[in-house]
Write a structure and sequence with these properties.
- With 535 residues, the chain is an all-alpha fold.
- Among the domains are: 231 residues, no CATH class; 125 residues, no CATH class.
- Helix 1 runs antiparallel to helix 7, helix 8 packs across helix 19 and helix 12 runs parallel beside helix 14.
- The chain is globular, with a radius of gyration of 23 Å.
Length: 535
């Protein structure tokens, strides 16, 4: 039985790679969130020019030129550019000429900053992800920009895929069940947003892996191995703080865990205090330099551009929080966490989000029942993994709420639920535990949710992303996106796949088949895991 379960885990990992690989090929250049700015940051580090300076460093000449030569999402840019709808309405000869100019951009431009180019607002980002990918940027330097970005995306896919086995390990540590771990891996691999996030150049891919590894360490940490795990957690926290600012939310989560140990275990307070010192001391040694640099350059420890020059007093934050529409924030954040069509912000129909809201509410109900059952039977063990996952999720979402308040001060709204893909491992642990509790230890509800996510991805990819990115559907004058229907494929199948990802039909067809097969396979992985479950 164990050999079969481990085989299912490996299959779920492989399915994620196939799914994310297709998304990487499908995604048009710069359609990923802030991808052009991430690539410009990477180019600067790879060419040995050092860290970019917030508010000063501009993008490379290559990236700047590309903004006018490829379809772009409808985001504010000072550079003249085509939206996707405008691009596909151009005559074919003009699109061909734009593509030719994009591919023939001089390679030297990749290492030359454009003094009149766009400011690189991603200069606020910590450097670890970019340092990790810099050797690959140098290795792929001879490739044209579109192929180079695709190669970097595929490296990111391999990196982000580590979150699948790590999520599996975290579920196993939290539940003690190998079949549940296999089903949890299938769930994480079937969710659309992790694969879509892995498919673009950006530091969220590394954040997913580090959060998953941190949760696994916390779920396994016990009295016998406390110091080793504290050191490992400190290294992971320090690496996370050098990857993305939202890793700051892990600090109060970890402080809560060790504060509880200090209060709960009076006879081991000195040990708990020593472990906390090792953890936070290690993280500080690794990452303090970066936050001190942020403070000197921006006046903010986080370095986030929207917090520069703002008052950070608790009273001011609470006053601003009173003016935020929190119900609207919760709704949009949930929707953009379940599925959002990259930087063009394509969306599903409202009732589809409602179906997933029901499943998430069922998981919350299951977690409440699990807590009541364990309290009734005075069961105090087995909470380490679930508690760590709950704290990571809770503090992360509080961090997103703070993010919303900082934007509200500028008269803007964020509601960036897609950021929560970083804690997909903690989310998978809680969802698996909640649905399993409702199912009396069985995994059928978890398998059903995996199937639902797989169906969502198949629909959204084939009826929204591919038609939109190939010009078969577009936004109308009213701002509504036209619907895509299967009869539109009559006589246009080659157009459907031939335009995607640059227009290599045989390769796109093969990748599409792999994506479809992998997505369909994941519910069967979850079902097989449910059948091997002894409950």
């Amino acid at each position: 039985m164990l050999r079969r379960a481990y085989g299912l885990i490996l299959l779920a990992w492989l399915c994620f790679l196939c799914r994310a690989g297709w998304h990487a090929a499908l995604l048009p250049l710069w359609e990923g969130f802030d991808e052009w700015a991430h690539v410009a940051y990477l180019q600067r580090l790879a060419s040995g020019q050092g860290l970019p300076l917030p508010g000063q460093t501009r993008v490379s000449r290559e990236v700047q030129a590309s903004l006018s030569l490829t379809p772009m999402p409808a985001v504010p840019l000072s550079t003249p550019h085509y939206t996707h709808g405008q691009y596909w309405r151009l005559p074919p000869a003009e699109r061909t000429e734009l593509r030719r100019r994009l591919i023939s951009t001089p390679r030297q431009w990749a290492i030359e900053e454009d003094p009149a180019g766009e400011l690189n607002y991603e200069a606020q980002q910590p450097p670890l992800y970019y340092l990790t990918l810099a050797p690959f940027e140098r290795a792929f330097a001879s490739l044209p920009l579109p192929e180079r970005v695709l190669a970097l995306r595929l490296v990111g896919v391999l990196l982000a895929s580590l979150a699948v086995p790590l999520t599996c390990a975290a579920v196993h540590a939290a539940t003690g069940s190998v079949p549940a771990a296999a089903a949890g891996a299938a769930l994480a691999a079937a969710m659309p947003l992790p694969a879509m996030t892995a498919a673009r150049v950006g530091n969220d891919a590394l954040s997913m892996v580090l959060f998953a590894a941190l949760l696994w360490v916390l779920a396994r940490a016990g009295p016998q191995r406390g110091f080793r795990h504290a050191l490992a957690a400190g290294v992971l926290l320090g690496a996370g703080l050098l990857t993305k600012a939202y890793f700051l939310t892990a600090i109060p989560a970890l402080a809560t865990i060790y504060g509880w140990r200090l209060l709960r275990h009076s006879g081991r307070r000195a040990v708990a205090a020593a472990q906390a010192t090792i953890l936070f001391g290690t993280a500080g040694l690794l990452s303090f330099w970066w936050h001190w640099r942020n403070l000197r350059l921006t006046g903010s420890w986080s370095g986030l551009q929207q917090t520069a020059g703002q008052s950070s007093s608790l009273a001011d934050l609470l006053q601003q929080a009173l003016h935020v529409d929190w119900l609207r924030f919760a709704e949009i954040s949930f929707r953009t966490h379940v599925w959002i069509g990259h930087w063009s912000f394509l969306q599903l129909r409202a009732w589809m989000y409602g179906v997933f809201a029901v499943f998430y509410l069922l998981a919350v109900t299951g977690l409440l029942l699990l807590w009541l059952r364990r309290r009734k039977h005075r069961q105090t063990t087995g909470w380490r993994g679930l508690g760590a996952a709950a704290l990571i999720c809770g503090w992360f979402w509080l961090g997103l709420a703070y993010h919303e308040v900082t934007f509200a001060r500028l008269g803007l709204s964020s509601s960036a639920g897609w950021y929560a893909v970083a804690i997909i491992s903690a989310e998978a642990v809680l969802l698996a535990a909640g649905w399993s509790a409702l199912d009396r230890g069985r995994l059928w509800l978890l398998a059903a949710a995996t199937a639902l996510f797989a169906l969502l991805d198949l629909y959204a990819t084939n009826f929204l992303l591919v038609p939109y990115y190939t010009g078969l559907i577009a936004y109308g004058p009213s701002g509504r996106l036209a619907s895509f229907h299967l009869p539109q494929l009559s006589g246009a199948a080659a157009l459907f796949l031939g335009r995607a990802g640059g227009g290599v039909l045989p390769l796109n067809l093969a990748l599409w088949c792999l994506h479809a097969a992998a997505t369909v396979a994941l519910p069967f992985v979850a079902v097989r895991a449910a059948k091997t479950n002894p409950h």
